[in-house]
Design a protein that fits this description.
By secondary structure, the protein is of the alpha+beta class. It is built from 9 helices and 13 strands. A hairpin with a 2-residue loop joins strand 11 and strand 12 (240-242). Helix 4 packs antiparallel against helix 5 (169-190). The longest helix is centred in the middle third of the chain and has 22 residues, at 169-190.
Length: 293
């Protein structure tokens, strides 16, 4: 990213997932939607039994977790490797407060920068710093004709949101409204007239992230990049792998794509070479993955 700069995916980031699903299916695999995994258990034959909340059961030689280490360990329970049992969320990790805005595109000039960073004061985060990402003006997949999508983000402490959410729901809603106004005010420095052009405003807190990503407390962004050695290696134990922003090289779409490609290559090579189940399959069926989203 420092060398190439920030980029846009036409149609939004979700298009990456859509294209991956298409590729899996094109190669004979399955992509199963809305199958939240509830447990991963080791069978007597060494394979993994993966259960979902819809009573789905899947047997696999390898289990790949797109979760932080501590959440992967929670799903594995007594079968988790020691490293996952000991894993803890870092004290300097963070969550994100997001505001998703639908804008009247006519209020913006076509040469408006697609990315802006607004730094108001220190300490950064909590609305004192925000990052803005504006959709391309000619991308119809991001909004109705004549409209554009804007995402605004700021780092935020996790525990304070959860404390209010669990003990004082009105105070939680009030804080969400106050943060929405704080973030919009910062964003309006880069995009004057933002509020008057907004047609849709949707805030998201760490509570939102936990709901949609199954990451405990809504922890996002991977390990703070204070050291190359903080990120995990992808292979945790035989048949147990991590992908995503917890493994090297860390956060960002680019980094997780690099990490995921390495894991995929390693798993496919191991599976086609040594798995009794794979060896018994016709060649066209080998290394056929299932993706549970």
């Amino acid at each position: 990213m420092p060398r190439r700069g920030v980029a846009h995916v036409r149609g939004g980031i979700g298009q990456i997932a859509a294209h991956l699903v298409e590729a899996v299916r094109a190669h004979g695999g399955q992509a199963l939607m809305r199958q939240r995994v509830t447990s991963v258990e080791r069978r007597p034959d060494g394979a993994w039994l993966i259960r979902t909340h819809r009573k789905g059961e899947f047997i696999a030689d390898d289990a790949l977790f797109n979760l932080p280490p501590w959440d992967a360990g929670r799903l594995m329970a007594d079968d988790a490797p020691d490293s996952l049992r000991r894993a803890q969320r870092p004290a300097d990790g963070w969550g994100a407060f997001m505001v998703y805005v639908g804008l009247d595109g006519g209020a913006l000039s076509l040469d408006t920068p697609l990315h802006n960073q607004v730094l108001l004061r220190q300490p950064f985060g909590e609305g004192n710093s925000v990052f803005l990402s504006l959709s391309l003006p000619d991308d119809p997949a991001r909004g109705p004709e004549g409209h554009r999508a804007l995402t605004i983000s700021t780092h935020t402490d996790l525990r304070s949101w959860w404390s209010l959410f669990e003990s004082d729901r009105p105070a939680y809603e009030a804080r969400k409204a106050e943060y929405t106004e704080r973030v919009l005010a910062a964003a309006e420095i880069a995009l004057p007239g933002l509020r008057s052009a907004a047609r849709l405003i949707l805030p998201g807190t760490p509570v939102t992230f936990q709901r949609y990503t199954a990451r405990s407390l809504g922890w996002v962004g991977g390990y703070p990049q204070t050291s190359l050695f903080r990120a995990w290696g992808p292979r945790v134990a035989p048949g147990v792998w991590l992908v995503g922003d917890s493994i090297f090289p860390g956060q960002s779409i680019l980094a997780t794509a690099l990490g995921g490609a390495r894991v995929a290559s390693a798993v496919i090579a191991k599976t086609t070479a040594s798995s009794p189940r794979a060896a018994a399959l016709p060649q066209r069926l080998r290394a056929r993955p299932s993706v549970i989203e």
